[in-house]
Amino acid sequence: MSIKQRLEQIRATLPEGVSLVAVSKFHPAERVLEAYEAGQRLFGENRPQEMAAKAQQLPKDIEWHMIGHLQTNKVKMIAPFVSLIASVDSDRLIVEIEKQAAKCERVIDILLEVHVADEETKSGWDIEELRAYLTTGALDAMSHLRVRGVMTIATNTDDEAVVRRDFQTIKDIFEELKPRFGNHFDTLSIGMSDDYPIALEYGSTMVRVGTAIFGAREY
Questions:
Q1: pLDDT tier, 219 (very low <50, low <70, confident <90, very high otherwise)
Q2: Helices 160-181 and 127-135: crossing angle, nearest 10°?
Q3: What domains, with CATH codes, occur in the chain?
């Protein structure tokens, strides 16, 4: 099955208003272009170097989303062009995004990544730490970034009940934070190739799908 056919199949399952991020990490620019030619414009990468290289090679109307853990010293590599940073998991990273976005005279959209999974290896804010950070008011002084919503990765398990628990937890957090940020806080980014149909039941507005579009990754 071609990338175009896979994209069409996935799009047919998404309700109106749900964005599809094609996770192109580890796939060559030619395959990204194939998806682009099939109408896809949102692409997710998890390594700044790879994203920057592809952004130079590929059409300029692509919206690039940084979805992997981002080190503060790598922010400057993507600040000039990144559309959204979905993996914002610390106050240090927020400060650096603000600084680099200001240098580029841009406002960068971000998602707050919250850790809800059972696995310690997954990154993200602990919800209590995030609540404490938000009470400091530090974010209110940032004029070059805009908090669009929250993101999480559910526990990697075959137990659907655990995945549902994770998605319910992040949905509750999204609803809790929404009044604080207002109308532009509209993105609940949950769901990947294996679990996005479940995520849609919990109000996902953005799914991140790689394998189901591009096939197995080339490492």
A1: low
A2: 0
A3: 3-214 (3.20.20.10)
